[in-house]
Amino acid sequence: MEIFGQSLPVQGELQQDYVAELARYVDARMQALAATAGTADPGRLALLAALNIADELFTLRARWAECRERVARCLGLVEAALRRTGDLP
What we know:
This protein is mainly alpha-helical.
């Protein structure tokens, strides 16, 4: 696996194709940051990429929680309607 020009041996339980996809994602983020951040220091770019990816993760987690809440509210409305019609005990 190669990220930002550095080869890294990776062993573990994850599928090699999946790990390669993750590596391409991180490499792309670091390459994009290198083009805009004004630094070529791999350590700094890795930290910036990690922060960006963590931000993306936290944002998606918040959206997922909102979606779960909406689904729960909708399910409650459907259950209430079914109870009114006698189709749900």
